[in-house]
Amino acid sequence: MTYLYKKNCEIRDDAIPPEGMRRIAFQVEYNGSAFYGFQRQKNTEKTIQEALERALTRVANEPITLVCAGRTDALVHATAQVIHFDTFAERTEVNWVRGVNSYLPTTIRVIEAQDVGFKFHARFSALSRTYSYLMNASHIKPTHLDTLVTWVRLYNENQTGLNLDAMTKAANHLKGHHDFTSFQASGCQAKTATRTMIDIYFEPRGKIVCLNITANAFLQHMVRNIMGLLIKVGKGKIDPDYACTLLTLKDRTKAPDTASPDGLYFVSVSYPDALNIRFKPRKPMLL
Fold this sequence. Notes:
Elements: E1 22-30, H1 48-60, E2 66-68, E3 77-87, H2 93-101, E4 108-115, E5 128-138, E6 150-153, H3 164-172, E7 176-179, E8 194-205, E9 208-215, H4 222-234, H5 242-249, E10 264-270
Parallel strand pairs: 3-10, 5-6
Antiparallel strand pairs: 1-3, 1-4, 2-3, 5-9, 5-10, 7-8, 8-9
């Protein structure tokens, strides 16, 4: 029996999409400071998805809905978000980029387009996602880079920065396959809190410290909740081994507060080599 095509969904080998339809993927970057997250919402038009779909619809001259690799929260940025959409419009990859960018606000940009075929799915084909979290620890808040880097206030006048050795020790407890309930937002609708943390490490760059974190998938607020713990550890307020305790407790109320969305960037999505996706990881320009 032939599998019925469903717009923007995964396509099986025996599926027959409508004649003339194509699947296009974009790599997108955005400054999320003025938006209420990526996903379209009923009560506001200030979302990344709304802006992209509005621009795509004008360029394609047909209604367009899109799928993303991972939904970012309000105020969160991206340098390498991946989306896909299905369309009957015939445009070159260059014209997709130029045309859509001409209708987008300056805070959102399409970096690259690729005709990917129907076996690709921005979300379900992804093997992993990577975020970078940029922070500056100081006694006085800098006047520059507001919303682009998180400021970590140092209250102790003798403290010159965060204890990265302690933070790394805590972070290493989170590597592997775990139940991350203690790092899950209360309103998260994920069916399970079990995720695989592939890598997590710190990258000092002058006065900015970057945490790079890769997992097969992330829960709502998961990165920011992990950062809330690691910042407390870096300040000497919590023992690094408490990270292991939190995994065992599976209780969000036992964990520190959620860190600010400022300085959080979606920087990479990995896909199987067989799909031949050209998009590469892209770090924030500050690094």
